[in-house]
Specification:
CBS-domain, alpha+beta, 10 strands, 2 domains, 383 residues
Amino acid sequence: MSVQIGRVKGVPIRLHFTLLIVFSLVTWSLAANFMPQFFPGLSSAEYWIMGVAGAILLFISVLLHELSHSVLAMRFGIKVRQIMLFIFGGVSDIEEEPKNPQKEFQIAIAGPATSFVLSAIFAGLWAISAAINDVPVFEGIMLYGAIINALLGAFNLLPAFPLDGGRVLRAVLVKRTKRDFDQATDTSVKVGIAISYVMMGLGFVTILTGNGFVSGIWLILIGWFLQSGAQSYRYQHELTAILSKVRMRDIMNISFIAIPPETSLQESLQRYFSVYMKSAFPVTDAAGRLLGMVTLKRVMDSSGDDESKRQVLTVREVMMPLEELNVVSPDTRGDEAVKKMTSSGIGKIFVCDLEGRLLGMVTKTDLLNVVSERQEYSKTVTR
């Protein structure tokens, strides 16, 4: 659950609801602990102002960190879907990973570099305000900005997926050790998982030794985030690697039922939806050319309970047009098909020839079955 707050260079900026939890925790932590410790003697109102300002500064810093990734990716011609800010920071949703190690290194290192530059700027402003010694509220906010950006940059350089350091490590492994992309990814993921277990272990030790319950919980949560992120990335990478070797012609279902465009909605319900129990059908003309797709939801939304309306309206009038569908050639790779499904939100691929004739269809289930079968084959062969 998230909300879009704006766009920067055409990239949507979204806030996840978990951000409210972190904002509240950071504000309270700064107002109740950090600021009174470093700047004693101020009023409660001043501490809370510093807390709120510090929390806002943190998330602006995270946004700038992620924007640096996105801007550089777009400069290399890579599309950025969105930037999401959530409980553990932020993520730039980049459509395609650069296979070139130099480009990946530059995109990955841009975030920490931005954080370190911000830290230096805030440190300079803090030093100036400290010399003036007349604006403790501003001084406290700048000190926090310097510290948190230094920590943000350093933490993201940990060689653990999905952090920037994991991608830096992979780029270095590909460039310096001449490993292929898949081998470098596997090594980087394993290193990330090891680091996640170390952090969770430190969290438990911190709690058990009484050195800070809250700090221990945060270490455990961050370790869990790194571990789950690394495992999720490993699965997605394996899926992409397998599907990149699969062509649509090899897995498409050629036994499909298509509806003529002039079929009435009533007839489509009686002869197709009710008989075959499917939620959608392709629409083709007499020559077999794909025209669109009609869904049960569109039929029901267009006619409701009005049977007379269903007798008059045709499938052509309510179908999803061809331009909105995922139409590919028989030579299209499986990973490219997944990208189309993800970007369109439609879980079907329509395989057509050069004349637009529908040759077959592929669903998400078909692709997942291919991945499962190939993984099972690989496990059996390597035993």
